[in-house]
Design a protein that fits this description.
single chain; alpha+beta; 2 domains; elongated
Protein backbone atom coordinates (compact mmCIF):
# COMPACT_ATOMS: atom_id res chain seq x y z
CA UNK A 1 0.00 0.00 0.00
CA UNK A 2 1.42 3.36 -0.88
CA UNK A 3 0.62 6.48 1.05
CA UNK A 4 0.85 10.01 -0.20
CA UNK A 5 0.49 12.28 2.76
CA UNK A 6 1.37 15.95 2.96
CA UNK A 7 3.20 17.26 5.99
CA UNK A 8 4.08 20.74 7.24
CA UNK A 9 5.29 22.30 10.52
CA UNK A 10 4.51 25.87 11.53
CA UNK A 11 5.86 27.86 14.49
CA UNK A 12 3.87 30.91 15.59
CA UNK A 13 3.21 33.17 18.54
CA UNK A 14 -0.11 32.59 20.29
CA UNK A 15 -0.95 36.22 20.98
CA UNK A 16 -4.12 35.30 22.88
CA UNK A 17 -1.98 33.86 25.66
CA UNK A 18 0.29 36.89 26.14
CA UNK A 19 1.07 37.60 29.79
CA UNK A 20 3.44 40.23 31.15
CA UNK A 21 4.56 41.09 27.61
CA UNK A 22 5.68 37.52 26.87
CA UNK A 23 3.95 35.36 24.27
CA UNK A 24 4.31 31.57 24.06
CA UNK A 25 5.69 29.97 20.90
CA UNK A 26 3.34 27.32 19.55
CA UNK A 27 4.05 24.47 17.16
CA UNK A 28 1.37 23.51 14.65
CA UNK A 29 1.66 20.23 12.74
CA UNK A 30 -0.30 19.66 9.52
CA UNK A 31 -0.83 16.24 7.95
CA UNK A 32 -3.14 16.26 4.93
CA UNK A 33 -4.63 19.62 5.98
CA UNK A 34 -5.58 18.31 9.44
CA UNK A 35 -3.80 20.13 12.25
CA UNK A 36 -2.64 19.55 15.78
CA UNK A 37 -0.74 21.97 17.96
CA UNK A 38 1.20 22.19 21.17
CA UNK A 39 3.09 24.87 23.04
CA UNK A 40 6.84 25.03 23.27
CA UNK A 41 8.50 25.73 26.61
CA UNK A 42 9.54 29.22 25.41
CA UNK A 43 7.91 32.63 25.74
CA UNK A 44 9.25 35.75 24.06
CA UNK A 45 8.34 39.34 23.36
CA UNK A 46 6.38 39.82 20.14
CA UNK A 47 8.99 42.30 18.85
CA UNK A 48 11.66 39.53 18.91
CA UNK A 49 9.72 37.16 16.63
CA UNK A 50 10.34 37.00 12.89
CA UNK A 51 7.21 35.35 11.45
CA UNK A 52 8.41 34.71 7.90
CA UNK A 53 11.36 32.40 8.77
CA UNK A 54 9.61 31.38 12.00
CA UNK A 55 12.66 32.20 14.10
CA UNK A 56 13.60 34.47 16.97
CA UNK A 57 15.51 37.61 16.00
CA UNK A 58 19.11 37.81 17.18
CA UNK A 59 18.26 40.83 19.37
CA UNK A 60 16.73 38.43 21.90
CA UNK A 61 19.23 37.08 24.44
CA UNK A 62 17.81 33.53 24.17
CA UNK A 63 17.68 33.56 20.35
CA UNK A 64 20.32 30.87 19.84
CA UNK A 65 18.70 28.43 22.30
CA UNK A 66 15.17 28.99 21.01
CA UNK A 67 16.16 28.79 17.34
CA UNK A 68 18.08 25.61 18.10
CA UNK A 69 14.94 24.19 19.74
CA UNK A 70 12.85 25.13 16.70
CA UNK A 71 15.31 23.37 14.37
CA UNK A 72 15.41 20.29 16.58
CA UNK A 73 11.62 20.03 16.82
CA UNK A 74 11.29 20.42 13.05
CA UNK A 75 13.90 17.71 12.46
CA UNK A 76 12.29 15.28 14.92
CA UNK A 77 8.79 15.79 13.51
CA UNK A 78 10.04 15.31 9.94
CA UNK A 79 11.90 12.18 11.04
CA UNK A 80 8.86 10.66 12.77
CA UNK A 81 6.66 11.46 9.77
CA UNK A 82 9.17 10.03 7.28
CA UNK A 83 9.52 6.87 9.39
CA UNK A 84 5.73 6.32 9.38
CA UNK A 85 5.49 6.95 5.64
CA UNK A 86 8.45 4.64 5.04
CA UNK A 87 6.50 1.86 6.76
CA UNK A 88 3.42 2.72 4.67
CA UNK A 89 1.54 3.70 7.81
CA UNK A 90 -1.26 6.21 7.87
CA UNK A 91 -0.50 8.88 10.47
CA UNK A 92 -2.61 11.83 11.55
CA UNK A 93 -1.46 15.20 12.82
CA UNK A 94 -2.67 14.35 16.33
CA UNK A 95 -0.88 10.99 16.34
CA UNK A 96 2.33 12.66 15.17
CA UNK A 97 2.03 15.30 17.89
CA UNK A 98 1.35 12.66 20.53
CA UNK A 99 4.32 10.58 19.35
CA UNK A 100 6.55 13.64 19.57
CA UNK A 101 5.31 14.53 23.05
CA UNK A 102 5.48 10.88 24.15
CA UNK A 103 1.83 10.90 25.18
CA UNK A 104 0.85 7.47 23.94
CA UNK A 105 2.27 4.46 22.25
CA UNK A 106 1.83 4.01 18.55
CA UNK A 107 -1.26 1.88 18.12
CA UNK A 108 -1.81 -0.55 15.30
CA UNK A 109 -4.60 0.47 12.96
CA UNK A 110 -7.19 -2.20 12.38
CA UNK A 111 -7.80 -3.30 8.82
CA UNK A 112 -10.91 -4.42 7.02
CA UNK A 113 -9.53 -7.98 6.97
CA UNK A 114 -8.97 -7.79 10.73
CA UNK A 115 -12.65 -6.94 11.16
CA UNK A 116 -13.72 -9.85 8.95
CA UNK A 117 -11.41 -12.29 10.74
CA UNK A 118 -12.70 -11.20 14.14
CA UNK A 119 -16.32 -11.44 12.99
CA UNK A 120 -15.87 -14.85 11.37
CA UNK A 121 -14.03 -16.19 14.44
CA UNK A 122 -16.96 -15.09 16.64
CA UNK A 123 -19.44 -16.63 14.19
CA UNK A 124 -17.48 -19.93 14.24
CA UNK A 125 -17.90 -19.97 18.03
CA UNK A 126 -21.63 -19.35 17.55
CA UNK A 127 -21.84 -22.30 15.12
CA UNK A 128 -20.32 -24.57 17.78
CA UNK A 129 -22.94 -23.43 20.26
CA UNK A 130 -25.65 -24.00 17.68
CA UNK A 131 -27.04 -20.48 17.33
CA UNK A 132 -26.29 -20.27 13.59
CA UNK A 133 -25.80 -22.90 10.92
CA UNK A 134 -22.53 -23.88 9.27
CA UNK A 135 -23.90 -22.63 5.94
CA UNK A 136 -24.29 -19.09 7.35
CA UNK A 137 -20.64 -19.13 8.45
CA UNK A 138 -19.60 -20.26 4.97
CA UNK A 139 -21.48 -17.29 3.51
CA UNK A 140 -19.62 -14.90 5.83
CA UNK A 141 -16.31 -16.45 4.78
CA UNK A 142 -17.29 -16.20 1.13
CA UNK A 143 -18.13 -12.51 1.62
CA UNK A 144 -14.70 -11.96 3.17
CA UNK A 145 -12.99 -13.54 0.15
CA UNK A 146 -15.02 -11.39 -2.23
CA UNK A 147 -14.20 -8.18 -0.34
CA UNK A 148 -10.48 -9.05 -0.42
CA UNK A 149 -10.78 -9.71 -4.15
CA UNK A 150 -12.53 -6.35 -4.59
CA UNK A 151 -9.80 -4.50 -2.66
CA UNK A 152 -7.08 -6.18 -4.72
CA UNK A 153 -8.75 -5.08 -7.93
CA UNK A 154 -9.92 -1.58 -6.90
CA UNK A 155 -7.18 -0.51 -4.47
CA UNK A 156 -4.33 -2.84 -5.55
CA UNK A 157 -3.82 -4.00 -1.93
CA UNK A 158 -4.70 -7.11 0.09
CA UNK A 159 -6.25 -5.14 2.92
CA UNK A 160 -6.98 -1.55 3.79
CA UNK A 161 -6.78 0.42 7.01
CA UNK A 162 -10.25 1.09 8.29
CA UNK A 163 -9.36 4.79 8.68
CA UNK A 164 -8.80 5.15 4.96
CA UNK A 165 -11.45 2.82 3.56
CA UNK A 166 -14.18 4.65 1.68
CA UNK A 167 -17.47 3.29 3.03
CA UNK A 168 -19.47 5.53 0.68
CA UNK A 169 -19.14 3.18 -2.31
CA UNK A 170 -22.37 2.62 -4.14
CA UNK A 171 -23.99 -0.74 -3.40
CA UNK A 172 -24.16 -1.52 -7.13
CA UNK A 173 -20.39 -1.13 -7.60
CA UNK A 174 -19.72 -3.43 -4.67
CA UNK A 175 -22.22 -6.08 -5.77
CA UNK A 176 -20.93 -6.18 -9.35
CA UNK A 177 -17.32 -6.18 -8.18
CA UNK A 178 -17.92 -9.05 -5.77
CA UNK A 179 -19.46 -11.35 -8.40
Amino acid sequence: MSTSQKFHVLFYLNKQRTKNGLTPIYVRVYVNSAKAEFSSPFKISIKHWDAKPQKVKNACRDAVAINSYISEVTTQLHSKFAFAVGLNKIITAKELRDQFLGKKEEEKHKTICDAFEYHNRKMAETVEVGNITRKTLLRYQSTQKKVVKFMKREYKVKTKHSKTFDFRLSPNSIITSLQ
